[in-house]
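User: Could you go from structure to sequence for me? I need the amino acid at each position, not a summary. Structure tokens:
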């Protein structure tokens, strides 16, 4: 298969997707890499029907890669994830509105273009969690205990663009991240960015049937195939606080091979027309044998 990865400079050396790209190449697949943040891209020539079996996006939320992915989808190319789904979760205000309207347990969400407007939120909704609508990796996330603490926050968040605010969900201080790849789910725990005073070992943990069902429903609501769901175990049950397309898949066993196989299966489904069953992966089969270390392409060959 021929695939095209859109990779932001921030992820140039990351295991996701660099290791996945090397694995796919070692299996004999052709992988082109475009770096939308620094490369000159001939959009009229590089993005055309039939150029690749699938395009895969791994860029920062506000980067130019999403526009290129949408262009690929517009000319009929398969994208991983679906370009409309990616847009739907990268805007956290949009994601909150869609999620609540479809019955997901998403907190009440306010959106403001100016930090000063946060002062209009009822005092009864405090403490508040405030973050950029296009944020990622815990950037500029703030826990505001009361309305009188908003003024200094306004200066800190100036220039962050659209902000969202949600009532704080009481929890243990441990975030639960559910990764969904190739029809499988894996749960990991880590310390919440709102509780840096706590010490939590990041590790894989058992996944309850209730949280697994919620993660599956979340993927269905947003139309995602490769994704992660941030879940808090609140006093009234699990709550969805964030959804990420193509996350890091940290702590997922053999994540590189699992993600690579999932991408190939999704590319095959897209090129074959209507959705089909996920392809099997027997040794030496469709995806090829595991490569020896000497067969893995060097990272330096990425453009």
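Assistant: Here is the amino acid at each position, in order:
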């Amino acid at each position: 298969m021929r695939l095209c990865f859109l990779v932001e400079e921030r992820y140039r050396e990351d295991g996701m997707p660099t290791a996945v790209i090397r694995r796919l190449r070692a299996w004999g697949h052709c992988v082109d890499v475009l770096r939308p943040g620094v490369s000159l891209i001939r959009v009229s020539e590089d993005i055309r029907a039939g150029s690749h079996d699938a395009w895969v996006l791994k860029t920062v939320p506000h980067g130019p890669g999403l526009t290129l992915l949408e262009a690929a989808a517009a000319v009929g190319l398969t994208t991983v994830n679906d370009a409309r789904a990616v847009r739907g979760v990268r805007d956290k205000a949009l994601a909150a509105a869609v999620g609540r309207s479809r019955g997901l347990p998403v907190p009440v969400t306010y959106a403001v273009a100016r930090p000063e407007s946060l002062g209009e939120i009822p005092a009864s909704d405090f403490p508040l969690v405030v973050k950029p609508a296009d944020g990622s990796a815990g950037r500029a996330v703030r826990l505001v205990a009361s309305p009188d603490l908003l003024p200094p926050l306004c200066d800190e968040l100036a220039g962050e663009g659209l902000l969202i605010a949600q009532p704080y969900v009481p929890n243990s201080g441990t975030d639960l991240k559910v990764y969904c790849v190739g029809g499988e789910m894996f749960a990991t725990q880590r310390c919440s960015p709102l509780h840096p005073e706590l010490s939590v070992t990041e590790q894989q943990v058992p996944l309850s049937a209730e949280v697994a069902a919620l993660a599956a429903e979340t993927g269905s609501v947003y139309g995602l195939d490769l994704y992660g769901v941030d879940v808090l175990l609140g006093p009234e049950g699990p709550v969805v606080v964030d959804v990420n397309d193509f996350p890091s898949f940290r702590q997922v066993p053999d994540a590189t091979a699992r993600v690579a196989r999932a991408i190939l299966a999704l590319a095959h489904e897209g090129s074959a027309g209507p959705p089909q069953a996920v392809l099997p992966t027997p040794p030496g089969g469709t995806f090829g044998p595991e490569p020896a270390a000497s067969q893995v392409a060097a990272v330096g060959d990425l453009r």
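One structural detail worth keeping in mind: DSSP finds eight helices and 13 strands in the chain.
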